[in-house]
Amino acid sequence: MAAAVVLFVPGGLVAAAAGARGYRLWALATPLSFTLAGVSAIAVAVIGVPFSITAFAIAVGISVAITLAVRVALRGRSWLSTHPFDEGRETSADLPAPARWSVRVAVAVAIALSATMIGYRIITAVGAPSEIAQLFDNIFHLNATAIIHQTGNGSSLTLGNLTEASAGFYPAAFHDLAAMVMGLGAGDVTVVLNAVSIILASVVWPLSMTFLATRLFGVRVDVIVLTAIVSASLAAFPYRMLSFGVLYPFLAGLALLPVVVALIVEFFGRSRAPRASLAGIVAALAVIAPGVALTHPSVLIAAALFGSPFAVDFLFRSGRSSRTRRWAVTLGAAYLGATAAVFLLIRPTLDTAPWQPSQDYRQAIGSIVTVSPGTGAIAWAMAALLALGLAATARRTRALWPALGMFAIGAVIYFGAAAVTHAGLRDLVSGVWYRDTERAGALLVVGAAPLLVAGGLALTRFCAREVSRVPAIGWGRLAGSISTVLVAGVLLVASAFGPLPQAQEWIRQSFGHDGQALLTDDERALMTSVHELVPTDGVVVGDPFTGASLTPAFAQRTALAPHAFGQRTADEAYLLAHWDEAGTDPKVCPLIAKLNAYWALDFGTYGVYRGQTSILPGTDDAAEIAREQSADSTVTEIARRGDAALFEATACLGE
Length: 655
Known about the structure:
By secondary structure, this protein is mostly helical. It has helices at residues 2-17, 22-47, 53-73, 97-126, 138-151, 173-183, 189-217, 221-231, 248-267, 278-293, 297-318, 325-345, 361-369, 380-395, 397-418, 423-430, 437-468, 475-494, 499-513, 521-533, 551-554, 570-578, 588-595, 622-627; strands spanning 539-541, 558-559, 599-602, 636-641, 644-648.
């Protein structure tokens, strides 16, 4: 409940203050919450105020007040209710009352259905609420969220690799929001990350995708229901993001991506939903984009790319209308030029991107046409919907080709990451996403989703025609509803087979249920002793690769190396290499006293990152030295659980 409040209420209040209502309000709420968290964390850091739940609430209140003031000041301006490029779709007032109620019921049922489908698989795979993804990236995510909560420093400009020496840019909006959930009293960071990620995957993602689909195909019951089921039936997203990495920020960003694309569709006048004003669309894009960028910048680039087919379509349409031609050409060309520049110029460093092509050309093409990237099982139902979507596009090219363009863009990105062997070309196509097949696979299925919905709608129309021929009273009027239920039922049954059970099993494995462990049960239990034996201002030495640096997350104590990567000061680097030489190396004790790092955790040498052995030898000999337990021992073991031990540099206690 705390996670739902933080994800929906702050942004929802601002959206309501701006005049958004109904479905639009719910779709915009979470992206706006990410913007509020990411931007306010930076703002309060600049003025020297800790980022806490109180500071966040004040920032939300100020944002609501400013939004209301601007809305009142601009009330009555005619340009606030017009869209010069809109094709004149229906407004909500044009829909008859029964249709409006059926749509509302369909939204509630569809989101509940997709939330149940996705949430059930994830929850049963994760197990207990406090389980953690036993994966390398979670070292950072657990500690980052806990450190923001404990220190009040959540600025994306300085979060970096979680130490002062590593201060630098890291998009922290996801961790900022998670820290706010902790601020509401949900103090266990493990439960918080699970709750936030489950809501993002099972509620925010289908809600966002349905918002995009209604812009493309209209606000209809069949569109809403089929989109919800499709969004829950794609193994590469959201499920795979919880078993690879673990990629919490990318999961969050992709869950928001359809909303950005939907606004781009509206901007270029192609929305088949109730029309919105051009000023309102621009304002929404302007306030949502920072939140997406501060969650994962590559997602904003992906959204711009997915919006490109609609810009191209806009340019073609503008050529037939002299009334708006000049403005249209300028806007369309500017959008395409800016997208190309951002795609080519804003790229991450690839020093820590070791991924190589994982498929040959034929395998990659097979993964694309079956919408089954990165899985051993084939999503036959999704492959059939894709084929139907392609057929529908061939028949209604003008209406559907931008959706085909989205799929093509996702396919090119995936093919580049998965199969292209030429280093330069591969970097060009997929370098924004670290040349990583898993991230590219998630983008592929997100880009394919509208075309899959188009295929589902084509199948529903076919079924409706066949049902309407049944010589029974009333069947003709009910043909659409019956066909929607039939197609939805088939897709639901199909989802029980293919990649989804495999994706669920991968989540189960990533959460340690096959023995893989970032933290073993003994190591996690020992953290309780760390909390009890190490003072609140104490610093603990430990190798991040073994999970020994997770003391901020599990013991509320500072880690000398809270993440595996990052810059170290000269003092930190020396201590990480020589801590167990306390009492024998004259340089060690003064550094221990200076940094207040009298304690060290030894979790062995096997690292979670590809089994990498310890690169921080400062605790290698601690157990052997402590084993003597003599009166003048330089290192003393003060707690142990199984093979995990906590040591104290007793030789330095007088320093």
